[in-house]
Specification:
The complex is a heterotrimer. Chain A is an all-alpha fold. Chain A has helices at residues 9-17, 20-28, 44-63, 73-82, 87-114, 123-145, 150-161, 170-178, 185-216, 235-260, 290-298, 315-331, 333-336, 348-369, 374-401, 421-424, and strands at residues 33-35, 232-234, 303-305, 310-313. In chain A, a hairpin with a 4-residue loop joins strand 3 (303-305) and strand 4. Chain A is globular. Helix content of chain B is 48%, strand content 4%. The longest helix of chain B is centred in the middle third of the chain and has 38 residues, at 169-206. The radius of gyration of chain B is 28 Å and the shape is extended. In chain C, the strands form three sheets. Chain C has a three-stranded antiparallel beta sheet, with no helix packed on it. A three-stranded antiparallel beta sheet of chain C has the order 2-3-4, with no helix packed on it. Chain C has a three-stranded antiparallel beta sheet with strand order 5-6-7, with no helix packed on it. In chain C, strand 2 and strand 3 (75-81) form a beta hairpin. Chain C is elongated and about 85 Å long. The N and C termini of chain C lie far apart (60 Å). Classes of the chains: A mainly alpha, B mainly alpha, C alpha+beta. Chains A and B meet through helix 4, helix 5, helix 10 and helix 14 of A and helix 1 and helix 9 of B.
């Protein structure tokens, strides 16, 4: 902690009046000590941040060309694709950027789930992350409506109709959401306004997320706290250069999709202008919503008091509750998993269930793309059951019954040599107060 | 560290693998015979448009399709992309009658088209188009190749290989088998339901309750000809149209147009040409995109390589 | 790079690192600039705006001494059917008296028809003088009320803050009394 030094007079002049350079240095520079053993899975946080910036930059320029009116929206997007200088490039980046944002964030989340990054003292950090996920979903959903193609319109209609499942006020709420009696011009306008606003709200929550991160620093693949300077390295240059390399790899994938298969992750139906009188044969949300869509449709039965015929929750409402519950359960995750060991590396049974959860998520995604009937419905129901069981039953039980493997004494010495046996039976107590 | 990286890549691959599956399955759910794949000059990393074919396709559009289908997003000036000179474009535009105005007296007036005008639509609005075509408005063609899952393959198959006079015996048999299977499946489901209902009925009769006897489902007839498909009146058979019944009568006929470049105007040739043209109308920036893409990718790969070397260098002393 | 032989080993390692940093930094800068360019370029006029660039005007109904305004690319275009007196007045001025010297014949195709973009070259207001009863300024041409620029019967700046004459758009006579602007 030698403080920030610079030979440049201008920098010193600014620094004296507003210590922004030392602030940056403490945030992402040489004064921010990070665990030395972070794997490439720890790249996805900064990657998500950069993707957010890409989305905002392209989004602002698209907004300058877009017309939020039902009669002109589709046409204005085609004008962007054909007449605006590099409009096709900006639009394809923005369109596919949404998908890549979710890929990055989902990997980031699964990394956190595996290495126990949600555990004390990082609960708030995790919960802010879940808020970001929710905001991203809302933003992506409303953004998809803007081109005003068939999928835009019918996706908006179906998803907003979910709110009609709310008892008593459902219909009123839906009419209020629409600003009319169906998805129409008022809906499009408010979605555009919110789609422009929410990314900046996300930026705000991201700042809180990073703030909370800096309180205790990054978790790490071993999951034990850093014990001293020998466990740490400065963020700059070590992780700046590593993040830069990761960004390069990411951009290669991203560019390959933008330039060679830009419509691959979209739906052909969205190149047909919205027609409120004709529903497409299959309404499918964007891929990143498919697991949640599968959960929504998995609840095909009313929930009530057995043998009395009294229905408490109708199937429609049940699906909506399950879908939102799938995210809500993440909020309380830090209190469901009470195991004192963070990293899945030292939790042999947890590991198996975690891998199953990862597969489960992919299966749910696939089931979400299939018509909700027959075999795929059954698979979706089983997968939904497993998803909730993982968080609500398996993790609490594992906290009690699982015997973790012996933990290394420090990050610098991750492999126990020789006398590790004496530690093997000792109760793991690694994460008491950083 | 390497392990983590590999895991990250694997996760990326898994996610994109899931993506691969999804759109295809949606296609499969369309429940028809698969659309054949054709060779296109514009596919692949270095793909470019076959301009001669696209120009012939424009001729087919103007002489055959334009009677019913609009092409709203294409202006005459855009044709410069296909290799037409300014004079040719002016001449083509001048053939169109455009309504302009209002003039100083407040009246709309007609004038010859100019390069910045868009292709005129055959009908003033969608209702008029539907009215003139037995209720089915012919869709705008500008984005047709992007608005159908199988894209240009679908268009070529639909126009050149799908109608009753064109379709191959194999494809026809495939459709008959598919449809027969579908009917048998539906019958089996109905039969199951019937037997269940019958039991309930017999129980009721045994208990002396009055009930209506359920009707037994009819054994399905196998589909052996196009007539057996039972298409509605006014629809033509097309092997590649969802549901097989298309409102558009067969549009292309041998020598239906006379190509300026002497290419024989077979139905397949015209279908190929107009599909090329419509691919261009849907994605006019394809060549620019692919050309830029290769440069961007090479740059990024080199850049990433240097970053990797820098990363190795920086991390060399950390263990 | 004046490394001595004794430090060659350490030096070459450092040189390599410097090179990598430099190369990465340079490529990063080039990459970022090329990525930003399309974003900036997208704000330039788009293809369909550039294409909508010609307006046809029938001059037959415009009587001598009459001035009309038409629109071209969203801007007003002044068309003045000048009287011989006005033409003479425009030609009578010595070029060195003008802030922006330009001969009248260089500004017209046919002397009786003056065609100019009616946007003050100072800050973009539309000068007065098109309608009867409006001030035509001290030189009988046009007068910009915003900051008091006076234009003469050839649309040249004579007095006031405007730096240049009213610009003449590209136009041609397609018939005796028909022009196409743009």
């Amino acid at each position: 902690m030698s403080g920030f030094q610079s030979n440049n007079g201008v920098i010193r002049w600014i620094e004296h009046r507003m210590p922004i350079f030392s602030f940056l240095d403490h945030s992402v520079g040489s004064e921010y000590p990070s665990p030395k053993n972070l794997s490439y899975l720890w790249n996805f946080g900064s990657l998500a941040g950069i993707t957010l910036v890409i989305m905002i930059a392209t989004g602002i320029l698209l907004a300058m060309q877009y017309t939020a009116h039902v009669d002109h929206a589709f046409e204005s997007v085609e004008r962007i694709m054909r007449d605006v200088n590099y409009g096709w490039l900006i639009r394809y980046i923005h369109m596919n950027g949404a998908s890549f944002f979710f890929i990055v964030v989902y990997i980031h989340i699964f990394r956190g789930l595996y290495y126990g990054s949600y555990k004390a003292p990082r609960e708030l950090l995790w919960m802010l992350g879940v808020v970001i996920l929710l905001l991203m979903m809302a933003t992506a959903f409303m953004g998809y409506v803007l081109p005003w193609g068939q999928m835009s319109f019918w996706g908006a209609k179906v998803i907003t109709n979910l709110f009609s499942a709310i008892p008593f006020f459902g219909e009123t709420i839906v009419v209020w959401l629409w600003g009319g009696f169906t998805v129409d011009n008022p809906t499009l306008n408010r979605f555009f306004a919110l789609h422009y606003l929410l990314p900046f709200v996300i930026v705000g929550v991201v700042i809180l997320h990073i703030w909370a991160l800096h309180r205790f620093g990054s978790n790490n693949p071993v999951g034990i706290d850093t014990k001293g300077p020998q466990d740490k390295i400065p963020f700059h240059p070590y992780y700046t250069v590593k993040d830069a390399f990761g960004l390069g790899v990411f951009l290669v994938f991203f560019a390959a999709v933008v330039f060679y298969i830009p419509n691959y992750m979209g739906h052909a139906d969205n190149y047909i202008p919205a027609n409120p009188l004709s529903t497409p044969a299959h309404i499918v949300p964007e891929w990143y919503f498919l697991p949640f869509y599968a959960i929504l449709r998995a609840i095909t039965f009313d929930i009530g008091i057995p043998f009395t015929g009294v229905v408490i929750i109708e199937a429609k409402l049940g699906g909506v509750i399950a879908m939102f519950g799938a995210i809500a359960v993440l909020f309380i995750l830090p209190w469901l998993d009470r195991s004192p060991v963070r990293s899945g590396r030292f939790r042999p049974i947890f590991r198996i269930f975690f891998v199953l959860l990862f597969i489960d998520a992919i299966v749910l995604g696939y089931a979400g793309s299939q018509p909700a009937e027959g075999l795929w419905l059954a698979i979706a129901q089983v997968s939904t059951a497993y998803y909730f069981a993982y968080f609500l039953i398996i993790l609490p039980l594992l906290s009690v019954f699982e015997t973790p493997k012996p933990l290394p004494t420090s990050i610098s010495e991750p492999v126990l040599r020789g006398g590790g046996g004496t530690l093997a039976g000792a109760p793991a107590k690694p994460m008491e107060k950083a | 560290m390497r392990k983590g990286f590999l895991f990250g890549l694997a996760a990326l691959a898994a996610v994109s693998g899931g993506l691969t599956a999804a759109p295809q399955s949606v296609q499969a759910a369309g429940e028809g015979v698969p659309v054949p794949k054709f060779d296109w000059t514009f596919s692949g990393i270095f793909g470019t448009y076959d301009r001669a074919a696209a120009q012939r396709g424009l001729q087919v559009y103007r002489e055959v399709c334009a009677g019913c289908h609009s092409l709203d997003y294409i202006a005459f000036r855009n044709l410069a992309d296909l290799g037409y000179s300014e004079d040719e474009i002016k001449a083509m535009a001048a053939e169109a009658i455009v309504v302009d105005g209002p003039n100083d007296e407040g009246e709309m007036f007609e004038r010859e088209g100019l390069p910045f005008d868009y292709f005129p639509a055959p009908f003033p609005n969608e209702k008029a188009a539907a009215f003139a075509n037995n209720g089915a408005a012919p869709p705008d063609l500008s984005l047709m190749t992007k608005a159908r899952g199988a894209g240009p393959d679908y268009l070529k198959a639909l126009m050149g290989h799908g109608y009753e006079d064109q379709v191959s015996e194999d494809v026809l048999q495939e459709i008959f088998t598919l449809e027969t299977d579908k009917r048998v499946q539906a019958y089996e489901l109905a039969l199951e339901e019937y037997q269940h209902k019958l039991e309930v009925y017999e129980d009721k009769v045994a208990d002396g309750i009055e009930a209506n006897r359920p009707t037994e489902p009819e054994q399905p007839l196998p589909v052996e000809s196009i007539e057996d498909l039972g298409l509605s009146d006014g629809l033509s058979f097309n092997a590649y149209f969802p549901g097989y019944g298309i409102a558009m009568a067969m549009p292309l006929f041998e020598d239906g147009v006379e190509y300026a470049d002497g290419t024989p105007a077979t139905v397949e040739q015209m279908a190929y040409d107009v599909s090329n043209f419509l691919m261009w109308t849907a994605e006019p920036t394809l060549e620019e995109r692919k050309g830029m893409g290769i440069k961007v990718l090479i740059f990024l790969i080199v850049f990433t390589g240097i970053l990797y070397a820098a990363k190795r260098k920086v991390w060399a002393d950390v263990h | 790079m004046a490394e001595t032989a004794t430090t060659a080993q350490a030096g070459s390692g450092e040189t390599r690192r410097d090179f990598l940093y430099l190369a990465a930094g340079a490529m990063g800068a080039v990459g970022a600039a090329s990525a930003v360019w399309p974003l900036i370029a997208s704000m330039n006029p788009s293809a369909e705006v550039l294409a909508l660039a010609s307006t046809e005007v029938d001059l037959a109904p415009v009587a001598e001494g009459q001035r009309i305004t038409v629109t071209w690319r969203g801007n007003p275009v002044f068309i003045d059917h000048r009287t011989p007196a006005q033409i003479e007045q425009a030609n009578a001025v010595a070029l060195d008296e003008l802030p922006d010297p330009e001969a009248d014949e260089a500004r017209v195709v046919k002397p009786e028809w003056l065609v100019m973009i009616g946007v003050c070259t100072h800050l973009g207001c539309v000068p007065l003088g098109q309608k009867t009863g409006q001030s035509r300024g001290e030189y009988g041409g046009w007068f910009c009320p915003c900051h008091g620029s006076h234009y003469d019967t050839s649309g040249r700046i004579r007095k006031g803050p405007a730096p240049t004459n009213l610009p003449v758009p590209p136009y041609e006579f397609t018939a005796d009394t028909t022009i196409v602007i743009g």
